[in-house]
Amino acid sequence: MNFCDFPELAKVARGESAAEIVFRGGNVVNVFTGEVIQTSVAVTNGTVVGIGDQYVGETEIDLSGKYLCPGFLDGHLHLESTMVTPAELVEQAVQCGTTTYIVDPHEAANVSGAAGIDYILEETDDVPANVFVMMPSCVPSLPFEDNGCTFDAAEMQRYIDNPRVLGLGEVMDYVSTVGAAPAMVEKLALFDGMPKDGHAPGLSGKELNAYVLAGITNDHECSGFLEAMEKRRLGMHIHVREGSAARNLEPIVRGIVETKQDISGFSFCTDDKHIEDIHTEGHIDFCIRKAIACGMKPVDAIRMATINTARQYNLQHQVGAIAPGMQADFVVLDDLETVAVSKVFHKGVDVADFHAQPKLPMDSPLRRTMHSLPVQPEQLQLPVGESNDVIRVIPNEIVTGHDTVTLPQQDGLFVANAEFSKIAVVERHRNTGKVGVGAVAGFCIQGGAIASTVAHDSHNLSVIGDNDADMLLAIAHLREIGGGYTLVEHGKILSTVALPIMGLMSDAGFESVQKELSKMIAKAHEMGVPQDVSPLTLLSFLALPVIPALRITPRGLFDVEQMKFIQA
User: What is the pLDDT of residue 396?
Assistant: First the structure.
């Protein structure tokens, strides 16, 4: 609250002046006490000034029979992963009740550095939601990565006083953190006393203790309840993630319910969720519904989606609850059990009429980020022996297995089949010509290939398929159009989602992107990709060398657990 406004707001709170709006007679969810109380809420100048039926409003909104909740918060997400512009993501997700977003723009930073971060900030400066930013800590994610830019502590310095910057983004390079590497220590020190997001899948024991010692305050990479509890016992806040590929909510929430664990140290996040899935499932409202289906009380699930997240980011006096002095961000529900969203208000204003407008000029350098050499057929060849390291897909996860198997071959070269697909990652930022090639078990695509320039976090060009000709066609097509996703079958390009903004996002409009994504995903499953594998999202993560167990980069296969490349 701006204290210049306090004298006038206090008059309304005392009942000496009418409120601008009174939300009359709804069932108000109190996240402090866990109660649901039938009462009214008075709002002036976008701020809650009082609770109670004694208030009179210049405008009154009847909420009889409905439920009034605080606006939902997404504790950690990458706007770029939705594939539409940041403003358009907000346009879609705010209708689901998400009024606050804690954003880590490290996808944009890995491609375009500070210019990418500035784009995220500028695109969201006038949307009907609260968009806060965590400074990307690992650009690149590991020192050897072939990404587009480096973003160090010196460059972070100019953002430190921005009121929309809350702290340090997910610290993925846990090796440098635990080992107290000077460059990492400099970043940690810069944000001393501020929230520091974690990224520590599988980290345990003494290494986890050293990681927490560095001041890391939360983690969103837990895939199960036991891992979450080990981190929680050390004081870490746990963001329970439910995205497009990583769906970790059910095992963690069931563990919370079964053990009657205190929920105050848990919240929800989407991390990476495609616009297609937001459209069909929802956003944080989907997390609440799923938690309720797992046995959690509706008010507890709403607390996880609101005040718990706000406290983690020192926003508890601004958002996350309905109380005097809080911002009037509300979600009106028709029903508490089904979390049926009826209306959403940001600062007391209905968000229904917001429509995002593209801002990025057509001649922006952010539209020209594809700098890769043509790939030659021999660069996709993969020599094999009797024993070969293979990436194994794990359904509904972005972690992978590391198998050692005998691969199908002809003349000593790997030949893909229904069980084993070929994957390649092509460097696309500096025309180096690097191409890493490997094998994947469990993706199962047949008769074609899928390619993407969304390839966390360096965002090179990844392609997976069962034949080299279709893989080469997919690579060439994305080079030509400046990035995106494309699906090829039997020598024909079937479907493409162009992502001209940094090879990550489209400003062609949600409907266009969503329609093409739906078609592409359905066709990928027809071509053999299992239903419990998200084809586009999983492909986007197979190049990220900070998530166990085996990944692939333009330099080849990388063993994450051993932190070393596997020699061919």
Answer: 85
Listed in order, strand segments (DSSP E) in 14-148 are: 19-29, 36-44, 47-51, 57-62, 67-70, 72-77, 98-103, 130-135
**C-beta of residue 199 within 8 angstroms of C-beta of residue 220:** yes
Q: What is the pLDDT of residue 568?
A: 65
Alpha carbons 13 and 16: distance in angstroms, whole number: 8
Per the CB < 8 A criterion, the answer to whether 523 and 494 are in contact is yes
Residue 286, CA distances (Å) to 65, 90, 238, 300 in order: 22, 16, 18, 14
**pLDDT value for 349:** 98
With a cut of 70, which residues of the chain have pLDDT below it? Answer: 568
pTM of the model: 0.93
- In angstroms, the CA 413 to CA 299 distance is 57
Q: Which residues contact 346 (CB under 8 A, 6 or more apart)?
A: 71, 94, 99, 128, 129, 130, 328, 329
Say which residue the tokens 């997404």 belong to.
74
Question: Residue 1 has what pLDDT?
Answer: 72
Whole-angstrom Cα distance, residue 401 to residue 403?
A: 6
Q: What are phi and psi of 272, to 5 degrees?
A: -130, 105
**Three-point CA angle 274, 466, 424, nearest 5°:** 65
DSSP H or E segment with residue 156: helix 153-156
CA 339, CA 486: separation in Å to the nearest integer?
35
Place of tokens 């509706």: 298
How far from the centroid of its chain's Cα atoms is residue 370's Cα? Answer: 23
Give, in degrees to the nearest 5, the angle at Cα 551 between 137 and 75. Answer: 40
Give helix 205-213 / helix 225-233 axis angle, nearest 10°. Answer: 50
In whole angstroms, give the CA distance from residue 54 to residue 487.
61
Q: Report d(CA 273, CA 540) in Å as an integer.
A: 12
Helix axes 114-123, 86-93, angle to 10 degrees: 40
**How many Å is the Cα radius of gyration of the chain?**
24
**263, containing H or E segment:** none
